[in-house]
Structures are given as C-alpha cells and as structure tokens.
Amino acid sequence: MTAQSKKPNDRTDTLQDELTQRGRDVWLAGLGALATVEEEGNKLYNRLVERGKEFEEERRKELKEAEEEVREKGDKALTQLEEAGEETQSLLLDTVNSALERFGVPTRSEVDRLSEKVETLSKQVDELSSTLSDRNAQTDGKK
Fold first, then answer.
1. Is the pTM above the cut of 0.85?
2. Which of 42, 81, 85, 100 has the highest CB neighbour count under 10 A?
3. Distances in Å between the alpha carbon of 5 and those of 8, 14, 18, 53, 69?
C-alpha cells in the first residue's frame, strides 16, 4: 500500500513542476512579446517619422510649385485685364470723339491748338500795344 500511496504524490509533483515550468514559459513569452513590440514599435515610430519628413518635403515642394503657377497665372490675367482696359478706354475715347465731331463740338486737341494761337496772338497784341505806346510817347514828347 505504501508503493501505491507514493505514486500519486510523485505524479502530482511532476504535474506541478510541469505546470510551473509552462507558466514560467508563458510569462517569458509574454515578456518577449512586450520586448519585441517595444523594439519594433520604436523602429516603426522612427520609420514613420522619416516617411513623414519625406512626405512633408514633397508636399512643400508641390505647394511651392502650385503657388508659383498661381502667381504666374495671376500676373498673366492681370496683364490681359490691363490690356483689355486700355483697349476699352481707347474705343470709348474714339467713340466719344466721333460723337463730338458729329455734333460739331471741338475736340480737346482742337481746343488746345486754339488756346496756343490765342496765347500767341495775345503776346503779339501786347507787343504791338507796347510799341504803339512808346511811339505815342515819343510823338507827344516832340510836340
């Protein structure tokens, strides 16, 4: 009977040792998984940071190119707008001058030319008046 009573204890001890060993193995496997995740997580994090820098640089370059393209198009549109404005102003001026001519109203250039002639004539009249005044003074002095 002693031999039979020893066998269950031996089996229990062996089972207990085996379970302890398996539990320790599971614990170590969990620690290994944690270490792997930590190590791989850092690698992944660093790799993501590097890719983020590359992505940012690429987008910055694309954004700068798009900005330059928009600026060029804006300048071109502004030039076209200025040209259209000048053309419209010229057409309007021609139309107004044509209408004024039809109604017999002198144009600005005609008025300017007439003003120059009036100014020239005024100077001549002043000179003539001065000359006549001098002559009259001389003739009155001789009398």
1. no
2. 100
3. 6, 15, 21, 72, 94
